[in-house]
Amino acid sequence: MRLNQSDVVFYENTHTYISPDGKRLSGVTSLLSRQIFKHKYDGISRQVLDNAAKRGSELHEAIEFLDSIGGEADTEELKWYEEMKEKMGLSPLANEYLVSDNDHVASSIDMVYTDLTIADAKSTSKLDKEYLSWQLSIYAYLFEIQNPGLKVKRLLAFWFPKPAYGKRAVVEIERKDVSLVRELILADKEGRQFVSGDAVIKADTQVALPGSDDAIQEVCNIIRDMKEAETRVRQLKDGLLSLMRENNCKSFSNDSLSLTRVEERTQDKFDAKAFEQDHPDLYKQYLRQTTVKESLTIRLK
Fold first, then answer.
1. What are the distances in angstroms from CA 49 to CA 11, 26, 41, 123, 228?
2. How far apart are CA 96 and CA 265, in angstroms?
3. pLDDT value for 66
4. What's the confidence (pLDDT) of residue 206?
5. In the beta sheet, which residues pair with residue 287?
6. What is the model's pLDDT at position 112?
7. Can you tell me the distance from the alpha carbon of 13 to that of 68, in angstroms, rounded to the nearest whole number?
8. Measured between alpha carbons, how far is residue 38 from residues 33, 35, 89, 281 in Å?
9. Most Cβ neighbours (<10 Å): which of 141, 150, 207, 237?
10. Consecutive 10-residue runs of the chain (301 residues): their mean pLDDT?
């Protein structure tokens, strides 16, 4: 199978994509940063980001060399990658395959396999499936534009976290609807904010809410970031508690924070529901009416 090669030129030193007519195109990462994941790296130091980028680049280069040239895998990560390819029947077709609509966006797909599975390798501390869903869905859209008649079979992520953050895994990623991808690219091209429909406003019937697009998108981004942060905090707290338990440490303090280990214990808790069932009249005597302020409930889909 031969894939069509893009006429777009990628300049690695400046990380820019130039179309055949000299137009500078957007990369997928920068497009997603502008439109959906504006706060993805807020609060993370430049040094941490640079170190992560370096590790990711080295991993991509090693995978590309292994897929293209062959030879023996010389690290545990590459051995695992080879095992997963064999187990899943994946045969490399292309690495760093450049795709573009030749109009607004271009990028390189990490791995393309002969069954038309496309994949990305991640070495992050957590696997952001929502981000990958958008990233790989855009790749798939551009791939199919560039190769008429070919249909991407599935989207995969090969996750290579450090041992402290989890176990290596191959994860199938959900593909976004093509119409959403088209609208995202068009919105970015026209310089307007894309709203994905993750937040749906309903009354008795759905109504328009003029001027709400930016606020809705920002709320979606913040809620996603909060959920991811809460999950990460829980994981880190579990790890710190385990370390303190293993070292018989009751407390720890430095310039940033203090940790206090509270050991397992039992405590009394009033069962209001059981009390209401057993003593309904008495329960009602102690009820007091209060005013609950008007509020808004938001649920991401």
1. 21, 21, 8, 12, 17
2. 54
3. 86
4. 45
5. none
6. 96
7. 23
8. 5, 7, 37, 54
9. 141
10. 93 90 94 88 75 83 85 85 93 95 95 96 90 96 96 96 90 94 94 66 43 65 78 84 88 88 85 85 82 76 60
The residues pairing with 111 across neighbouring beta strands, listed in sequence order, are: 95, 119
pTM above 0.90, yes or no: no
- Which residue carries 């006429």 as its tokens? 7
| Residue 18, C-beta contacts closer than 8 angstroms, at least 6 positions apart | 8, 9, 10, 11, 24, 25
Instruction: Give SS3 for 122.
Output: strand
What per-residue string of b and e applies to 83-94 under the rule 16 or more CB within 10 Å gives b? eebeeeebebbb
**Can you point out the beta strands (E) in 82-159?**
92-100, 105-113, 117-122, 154-159
Calpha distance 258→173 (Å, rounded)? 39
Residue 53 pLDDT: 80
State the residue for tokens 């991407």.
Answer: 152
Interior angle at CA 278, CA 277 and CA 283, nearest 5: 75
What is the four-CA torsion angle of 108, 114, 115, 117, rounded to 10 degrees? -20
The sign one gets for the Cα dihedral 75, 80, 83, 89 is negative
Total Cβ atoms within 10 A of residue 106: 24
Token couple for 158 = 């090969």
**How big, in percent rounded to 5, are the helix, strand and coil portions of the chain?**
40, 15, 40
Q: CB–CB of 11/18 below 8 Å?
A: yes
Count of beta carbons in the 10 Å neighbourhood of residue 214:
11
Unique residue bearing structure tokens 């797909």: 109
